[in-house]
Amino acid sequence: MTARVAKWPGVELSAADLLEGKVTQTRFRPDAKYAWSAGEAISRFLEELQAGRLIARTCHRCERILFPPRMFCEECFRPTDAWTYIRDTGTIETYSVSYLDTDAKRISEPILVGVVSLDGASPKMGMMHYFGEMTKDEIRIGMRVRAVWRPAEERKGSVLDIRYFRPLREGER
Amino acid sequence: MRKVGVIGAGMTIFRRRLQETGKEMCFEATRMALDSAGLSIGDVDMVVNGTAPDAFDGVHMKGEYLLDGCGGYRKPYTRVFTGGGTGVFSTIAGWWHVASGLADVVLVVNEEKMSSCQPHPQSVFAHIWDPILDRPLKPNLVWIFAMEMNRYMTVYGIKKEDIARVAVKNKRNAVGHPCAQLADANITVDDVLKSEVMAWPVQRLDISPPSDGASAVVLASDDFIRRRRIKDRAWISGVGWCIDSTMWTDRDLVFPEYVARAAKMAYGMAKVRDPRREIDFAEPYDPFDYKELHHLEGLLLAKKGEAPTLTREGVTQRDGDLPVCPSGGLMGVGNPIAATMGMKIGELFWQLTGQAGKRQIPHEVRTGVSQAWGDLMQYGCVVVMRA
Amino acid sequence: MTFLERTTDARRYRAWEGNMEADYIYTSGLAGQRFFVALRDEGRLLAARCTACGLDYLPPRIFCEECFAELTEFVPVPPEGQVASLTVAHQDRTGALASPPQVWAFVTFKGVRGGLLHRLLATPDAARPGMRVHIRVRPREARTGTIADIEGFEPARSTK
Amino acid sequence: MRVGIIGVGLTAFRPSTPEYSWKELMFEAASRAYADAGVDPRADVGSFVTCAEDYYEGFGIFDEFVPDQLGAALRPTCTVSGDGLQGLANAFMQIQTGLIEVAVVEAHSKISDVLTPIGIIEHGLDPIWNKPLGFHPYVVAGLEAAAYLRATHTPTKALDAVVSKTRRNALRNPIAAYGAAVDMDHVAASEARFEPLRSLDISGPADGAVVLVLASDRAARRLHANPVWIRGVGWASDSPSLETRDWAGATYARLAAGMAYRLAKVRRPSSEIDVAEVDDRFSYKELQHLEALGLAKSGEAGKAALRGAYAADGRLPVNISGGSLGCGNVFEATGLHRAAEVALQLRGDAGSRQIDGAKVGVAQAWRFVPSATGAVAVLGAGP
Q1: ipTM of the complex
Q2: Which of B138, B261, C71, D297 could form a disulfide with A102 if both were Cys (CB 3.0 to 4.6 A apart)?
Q3: For chains A and B, what is the number of CB pairs under 8 angstroms?
């Protein structure tokens, strides 16, 4: 059929057609505001971040230490068993060197961002975060890193209470 | 289990901006699919709509909004939504409407109008992340691709030029596609490697563009197909779908296990035992070039880490042993998320019925597989179709 | 109750604020373009005709709901309509008290499938279903090619 | 192939639930449903269906945030952007194909997480023809209520009877958020909102989650379950355009019921149905829906309501659960909650609100303002 169809539907517009109002249009911004309940697990997680600590939940059935913490184990489908602190050191699992900000605008100083698996949690359990005190040429998968925390009085109970992860220094564990 | 066939397909052009409203786009694709099947709206029992985030079109409950354009007026109509997976998933939902015996003829209509959102559809992608764990870091969607691509490259030692070959192949394949937004007959690996770095390792030409577009397919039961003596049909012989855990920072991103599970489900139903030998061509989801490779491995069409070799050796070219994305894929035709059904399901139908025109695979093909991927690197869905 | 432990100190539960807001530009589409240009430039209403079903659609559309044919013919809508249903809203779009209350009406036109929903430019006491109305269009220079180019429906003078 | 409901899980419905994340709320309902059915979701369930809309949740792609708390990680799972009853219909079809034996349907509301619910509902209006006018989205309900009352000559007093009956019913439902001893006078005297609707004609929002476990008859036997059978499902939509839909008659409900009755072989619904749960998120909807479902003749539902025909001891108990007026508006979970209530009634597990001898029940849903979409399920007691 595709060979038999002469004209395929669709009227293409240019940016000017749209943005300068050359075709009739309406504009709108929805009123869409939220306050998500963090719930049992994430409220505690945020409270501990504010205190400068990372906390996880253990599942006794599959013997995993789950981070970020949750009140149920997705593997066993049962409630998790206990709270446990984990360390703020870890390993870069993957990363990107981004020249884009949230709105896809170009930035000249790239953002180093990636996933860190954290020591003390089960393998591969980690979080997304920024990297600092390293250049885009130094960063690599497998690099050992440590969290750099904001000063206690600036912490708000947010993943941003960690400023970024920096490379572990010589002799540091 | 009733046998279900695809008997018609249609799609709009894929472009950065279209003047049509979302429902007008749906109408155009649907009208075309019905015409190609030789049916009228009165023949349609039920309608399935697939469309991805409401925040693109900028309409809450946009399945309801698009309904009349999809031919759903006063009919049973349902929207399904599995993120980027919707492009193939809606056909799976359509399949169960017919295979269950509840409907004889079902329209599946997919749509995305990404140009409504200002200043850029990327602004809306910010809302797909966990609000507490991820959003404070102000992530850009490209990051997840970059992080997954980097891990895939690093673990298997894959070179960027081997990934760039996918972009080149698909953009060249798209030259024969009348709806294509980014076809390029002359693009080279060097062009891709020299394109602007967005979020390393992702460069501009590694990415499919945001687009507006709609597509539609018509599904029917074998009874109906026999009764109406419909000649152009391709059978849906296997379906599979699977979601992985939400906690994406807890997963090894190197292999899409969820795609493999969906593929095994579909192959099991289609009685495909050795996919690499029994599948003649594939339309895996390729919003980024490396995703085609990642998904070929998930579809068990290449061993882990070996998909780049197939591309390098020309196996996945249109005239190769395993043509991959003969449509031109998302990389070449465009990426109006759910509407990519036009390449994933539509192309299988057109190829298997010998209607693909300039894109027709030169040798005989009898079994094809299409796949889509979505959510936070966690959704896989697979459809196997036979001539 | 399903977890093995729970907090009982309500102060420890946190809420996280955010939004899903963005700016949108919606094109009025192929049928909308015909309608809004006629409204903006000539101050008149157009319907889309399905010759097969003998239906004139308002708002105009490029496809017939019933037979799914493509519609390309546009016809004028009669000047006078009738209030099919009305409501007096005591809240504005944000949920705040509307003072005075707003009167909203769905108005149909003879021989036309559909109609228009808009403000009824009458007091709640004077508003009643069945009343005859016509559109009041904003001055030409204030019109931009949207449904807000119509100020609302006002009672038809002929019935006064 | 017969398909039955073998597990029912509900959380309490509450105006707000600050102690739960949406995941934790879903986990509780799922845990209850799996315990009720005696299934292990990791081993026994072939498919999971969630019913949700992104803007109600505050996520660009809510589907991402679903699997873990349902036991659905690395399993076939999908989102139906619809009411829970549409999800139930899809799970029903999945089982009918023979591909799936046990399927789970989930729907929930965490509407207390939304600071601007009216803004979200407004965002569902047509962006070209309606949104620029800037009206409160419940204007749509006001216009429809006026059209319905006028077309059927139903007195406003009938709405007072609906609200009074339903909110009293909710006093006997421990999960209800808005049970109250409301008299007809209270309703009549409540503040005018979207005339003819007054504040007590409009259901209040609530959080809550509902999970149902469905199984083929073969799987139900294997699991030693005691199913309530899904005898028929139906769903349909009228025009999404406010301008061309049927304002008076709830055509979507009539079409959906027609389909469900056809599958269930119900020929005379008014005599064959023992208990009905219909969408009453605005009071007039209960009457409009009863007529569309063929449970009352057009224009008769209001008079019957005034006679007490729909009370717990009436001819046809309607919204014995307390409905949405009494339990709260749980958005996409509304229809699934009603199916759960009918299933509990048919099982004899409805506690102090149990209707004696109920054998066949109907649950009906509508997708709320501004939609004209609805679904119906006809359920039957075993064997």
Answers
A1: 0.97
A2: B138
A3: 178
